[in-house]
Design goal:
Rossmann fold, single chain, Isoleucyl-tRNA Synthetase, Domain 1, 2 domains, alpha/beta
Length: 582
C-alpha cells in the first residue's frame, strides 16, 4: 500500500489536498470532452499526488437534479429518481472501466449532500446574504413549466453568439440572465417563452464582491483563462443571483416561505465538494476529519473543470463559503481546460459527432483513450480529435516509442538474466545517460506539480526516446561481461523511471508492467529516481500495447455505428458495451 505522508508548507501547515472534478450531469453519459475536462484529468493528478505520498481526497459525483432530468423522465414515463438511479449506476461502472478512481463518487441525492446544502444555505440566510424578490421569469406555455436559465436559448448580447444559454454564453464566457438574450426560445420545444411573476430567493453577491475580488487577485495559482475570465466578470460588477427554482426535482429550499421551491442545481452542486468530503470520512468512521481538509490553511483545493464552468468555481463557490461566516479554505487552483472538439466540430449526440465514454471502452481498452486524451489535452487552447491523430499517437508514440522500448528491454533482461543480478553497477558511460533520464524525470515531476498534464506526459515520452536512442546506438545485446550488465542495468532502471512517470496516465498497463518487473506492490514516486533493485524475479514479458491498422479502424467505426443504432432505439445493451476488448 502506498505511503500517504503529510508534508508541511513553509509556514509549518500540514499540506493536504482536496481534488474535485466537475460533477457529471447524468442526463447523459459523458463524452470524451467531458472526461478530459474533469474526471480523467482529476484522476491523473490524484494518482500523481498519491504516488508522491500526499494525503489527498478526490471527490466528485453525479449531478442529478434540475429540469433536464425532469423532462427526460417525463419522456420515458418514469420518476426522476428512477432515471437517476439507473444513470448513476451506469456512470459508476464506466468510471471503473476507465480506471477513474475518486475516493468518493457520490450523488446529489445523497442524504449527506442534501443535509449539508440546506444547512449551508440556512447559515447564509441567517447571515443576511439572501433576500427575496418577485420577478417575471420565462415560462413555456407549451411545456407548462418555468424554464431554468439554461433552458432559454438566444443570441448573446455581448458577442452575438446565437446559441447562448440564459445563464452563461459558452462562446465568450459572460454570465447572463434570460432577459438579456436576444430572441429567446425555449430549449425544449423552441417556442417563445412568456414572462410570469414568481417569487425567488437571491444571493446578494454585491455584498461579497470585494472579498471575492481579493481572493481572485491574490491567487497566483489560477490558470490564465480562469483568472482573466473571473476578473472580467468582477470588473462589470457582480449582480444578485437567484438561488431557487420552481421545479420539483431538487433539494427543497430551507428558507421561510419557500415551500415548493428548490435550490438551483449550480448552487448546490458546487457545495458537493464539501459534502462529499464529509460523507467520505463518515464512511471511514472519522466523523470530524473532513475539517482538517476544509479548515486547515495548508490544504490545497484543486478543481478540474471545463472553461465554461469557471465562474461557478472561482466566484460562486468561494462566495458561498464566505457567506457562511466560517473560515473555509478557499480553492487554490481551477485547472480549467479549453474545449476538445471532434474533427473540427462540437460534440453532438443527435448528429453523432464525437465519442462517448461507454462507446470508447467498447472499442478499445481504457489506457489507449487515457494516453491519447492526456497527450492531446486542451490545456492552453482548444484541441481537435481526429481518427488520424488518434492512430498516429497510439501507433507511433504509445506503441513504437514507449511500448517497444519497454518490451525490448524486458525481453533482453528475461532472456539473459531472469533475475536482476547482485553486484551489477553502471559504468561511467551509462551513468551519464542515466543522469539525463533523471533530469527529464525532474521535468515530469515539475509539470505534474504545475498541473500541466500534457507536458508531463510529453516529458515522460522523452525518457523512452532516450532509451530507444541508447538501444539503437549502443546495441547492448552485442556486448559482454561488465559492459553488457552495466547497459542492461541502466536500461532496466530507465524502464523503472518511465513506469512511475506514466503510472498516473495509464494505470492498467503500468500495473501489468510492474508485475512483469517483479514489483508486486507497485512503486512510489520516490522510487523512480533509484536504479532497479537487484534480485528482482522477472516474469515473461508481453507487449503492453498494439498497433491499430486502418482496416481495424474501419471495423471499429462500423461497430460504433451499430452501437449507436441500438442506442437510438432506446434498447442499448449497456452490460455488453461495457466489456472492453480482450
Amino acid at each position: 500500500m502506498l505511503d500517504r505522508r503529510v508534508f508541511s508548507d513553509p509556514n509549518g501547515n500540514e499540506v493536504r489536498w482536496v481534488v474535485g472534478s466537475a460533477w457529471p450531469y447524468i442526463y447523459a453519459v459523458p463524452h470524451l470532452g467531458n472526461l478530459i475536462g474533469s474526471l480523467l484529468s482529476a484522476d491523473v493528478f490524484t494518482r500523481y499526488l498519491k504516488l508522491k505520498g500526499y494525503n489527498v481526497v478526490y471527490v466528485t459525483g453525479s449531478d442529478e437534479h434540475g429540469t433536464p432530468i425532469e423532462v427526460e423522465a417525463i419522456k420515458l414515463g418514469v420518476e426522476p429518481r428512477q432515471l437517476t438511479d439507473r444513470m448513476h449506476e451506469i456512470i459508476v461502472k464506466l468510471l471503473k472501466l476507465w480506471g477513474i478512481e475518486p475516493d468518493n463518487y457520490t450523488r446529489t441525492e445523497s442524504e449527506v449532500h442534501k443535509w449539508y446544502v440546506r444547512d449551508t444555505f440556512t447559515k447564509i440566510y441567517n447571515n443576511g446574504y439572501i433576500f427575496t424578490k418577485d420577478d417575471e421569469l420565462p415560462y413555456c406555455p407549451k411545456d407548462k413549466i418555468f424554464l431554468p436559465d439554461r433552458f432559454v436559448i438566444g443570441t448573446c448580447p455581448y458577442c452575438g453568439y446565437p446559441y447562448a444559454r440564459g445563464d452563461q454564453c459558452e462562446n465568450c464566457g459572460k454570465l447572463l440572465e434570460p432577459r438579456m438574450l436576444i430572441n429567446p426560445k425555449c430549449a425544449i420545444c423552441g417556442s417563445t417563452p412568456e414572462w410570469r411573476l414568481t417569487r425567488h430567493w437571491y444571493l446578494d453577491l454585491r455584498r461579497l464582491e470585494d472579498r471575492v475580488r481579493s481572493y481572485i487577485e491574490g491567487n497566483n495559482a489560477l490558470p490564465d483563462n480562469a483568472r482573466q475570465m473571473s476578473l472580467g466578470i468582477l470588473k462589470e460588477g457582480l449582480r444578485p443571483r437567484a438561488i431557487t427554482r420552481d421545479n420539483k426535482w431538487g433539494i427543497p429550499a430551507p428558507f421561510p416561505g419557500a415551500e415548493g421551491k428548490t435550490i438551483y442545481v449550480w448552487f448546490e452542486a458546487v457545495l458537493g465538494y464539501v459534502s462529499a468530503t464529509i460523507e467520505y470520512f463518515r464512511r471511514l468512521g472519522r466523523e470530524d476529519e473532513w475539517r482538517k481538509y476544509w479548515f486547515n490553511k495548508g490544504t490545497r483545493v484543486v478543481f478540474f473543470i471545463g472553461k465554461d464552468n469557471i465562474p461557478f468555481h472561482t466566484i460562486i463557490f468561494p462566495a458561498l463559503l464566505m457567506a457562511t461566516g466560517e473560515d473555509y479554505v478557499m480553492p487554490w487552483a481551477s485547472s480549467s481546460t479549453e474545449y476538445l472538439i471532434f474533427e473540427g466540430k462540437k460534440f453532438s449526440k443527435s448528429q453523432r459527432i464525437g465519442i462517448w465514454a461507454d462507446e470508447a471502452v467498447a472499442l478499445l481498452p481504457a489506457d489507449y483513450w487515457r494516453f491519447y486524451l492526456i497527450y492531446n489535452r486542451p490545456e492552453q487552447r482548444d484541441s481537435n480529435f481526429t481518427w488520424d491523430s488518434f492512430l498516429d499517437v497510439v501507433n507511433s508514440i504509445m506503441n513504437d516509442t514507449v511500448g517497444n522500448f519497454i518490451h525490448r528491454v524486458l525481453t533482453l533482461a528475461k532472456r539473459r538474466w531472469g533475475i536482476v543480478p547482485s553486484g551489477v553497477k553502471m559504468i561511467e558511460q551509462d551513468q551519464e545517460v542515466y543522469s539525463k533520464v533523471l533530469e527529464v524525470l525532474n521535468n515530469v515531476d515539475e509539470n505534474y506539480g504545475k498541473i500541466m498534464l500534457k507536458d508531463a506526459l510529453s516529458q515522460s515520452i522523452e525518457i523512452a526516446r532516450i532509451g530507444n536512442r541508447y538501444l539503437n546506438e549502443r546495441q547492448p545485446w552485442r556486448l559482454g561481461g561488465v559492459e553488457f550488465n552495466s547497459a542492461l542495468y541502466m536500461l532496466m532502471s530507465i524502464v523503472k523511471a518511465l513506469s512511475v512517470a506514466l503510472a498516473p496516465v495509464i494505470p492498467f498497463s503500468i500495473n501489468e508492467l510492474w508485475r512483469m518487473m517483479g514489483y508486486g506492490n507497485g512503486l512510489r514516486w520516490q522510487d523512480a529516481g533509484k536504479p532497479i533493485e537487484q534480485g528482482l524475479q522477472l516474469s515473461e514479458p508481453r507487449p503492453l500495447f498494439r498497433k491499430i491498422s486502418k482496416e481495424e479502424l474501419n471495423v471499429m467505426l462500423k461497430k460504433l455505428d451499430e452501437i449507436r443504432d441500438i442506442k437510438d432505439k432506446g434498447k442499448y445493451p449497456w452490460e455488453q458495451a461495457y466489456l472492453p476488448n480482450p
